[in-house]
Amino acid sequence: MFEGTYTAIITPFGETGVDYQSFEKLIESQIAGGINGLVFIGTTGEPATMTSDEKRELRAFALRQVNGRVPVIFGTGCNCTATAVENSVQAQKEGADGILVVSPYYNKCTQEGLYLHYKAIADKCSLPMIIYNVPGRTGVNILPETAGRLARSIPSIVGIKEACGNLEQIAETAKAIAGTQLQLMSGDDKLAVDIARLGGTTLISVASNALPSEFSRLMAFAGNGEFDKADALYSKYDRFVDLLFSEVNPIPIKYACAQLGLCKNILRLPLTPMSEAKAQILREEMQRLQII
To answer: Rounded to whole angstroms, how far apart are CA atoms 27 and 68?
Structure first.
């Protein structure tokens, strides 16, 4: 359902709130770059430091600005199941095309708890749902058998965004969901082509904030089975991607987008701007690639 490259879009901040002038510029650059869809208020969008009112206003703005040109997915996850349900129902009322639901963080629930968490959301919200496995942030890992169970029992779950970093596990997940509606999606720019080789259909990308056309082409090659071309294109940007994760996401990608004139380099505490030493290395790589 959601194939190609989707950008996990940053949230541009000003001194007092969301910088909507920059946000409009960012959205338009994404669509002009041929991106397949946009994910708002995911981890890269810093939702943990935004108020409920800010997130509601941002969702409304995003839907107006995109205006149906590409699919819009909203992050609705929470470690409180009732809140995740409420967020997801609200996204459906507002007109989102889908929801991205991170596994409940910090609680460190069981696999049964994961299953019941996602079932509770699907029972109240019929939007296509992408479940998001990022144990490095959440402290809980969606195991392959749980992904398979969800795929076979909850039709509205259409994708799993994999960012566990373990290709062996991802390969097992690919087997567990084979023959179902559940698409394998990469949440890791560095592993996008490898996951595509396992049957992955989609990249939910951080790097495409800065390079939408390049990472759209990357998944277009992979989707056509042209893995040599995909590998060659990715290799050009491998170091750039590494540097985007030299500090915690979204610190480096926000710096990169600021260098491109797309936003201000403003983050909210406890996130801080990129250290000058690492920023200089990223800036030099962007200059080498002639991005800036």
So the answer is: 12
Tokens 């596990």 locate to 169
The count of residues in the chain is: 292
Q: How far apart, in Å, are the Cα atoms of 40 and each of 2, 76, 91, 145, 175?
A: 15, 10, 11, 29, 29
Contact status, residue 1 vs residue 128, Cβ threshold 8 Å: yes
β-bridge partners, 8? 39
The Cβ-side half-sphere exposure at 204, using a 13 Å CA radius, reads: 34
pLDDT in tens, 214-233: 999 999 999 999 999 999 99
Whole-number pLDDT of residue 1: 84
Q: Which residue from 48, 45, 51, 43 is spatially nearest to 17, judged by alpha carbons?
A: 51
Q: What is the pLDDT of residues 29-49, one digit of tens each?
A: 999 999 999 999 999 999 999
pTM: 0.96
Q: Are 62 and 30 in contact (CB under 8 A)?
A: no
Model pLDDT, residue 263: 97
Q: Which of 161, 234, 254, 255 is catalytic?
A: 161
Tell me whether residue 161 is one of the annotated catalytic residues. Answer: yes
Active-site choice (6, 132, 234, 237): 132
CA nearest to 176, candidates 202, 205, 153 = 153
Question: Residue 59 is encoded by which pair of tokens?
Answer: 């969702």
Going 133 to 134 to 138 to 141, the CA torsion angle's sign is positive
* Per-residue tokens: 218: 């990357």
Task: Extract the residue ranges of the chain whose pLDDT is less than 50.
Answer: none
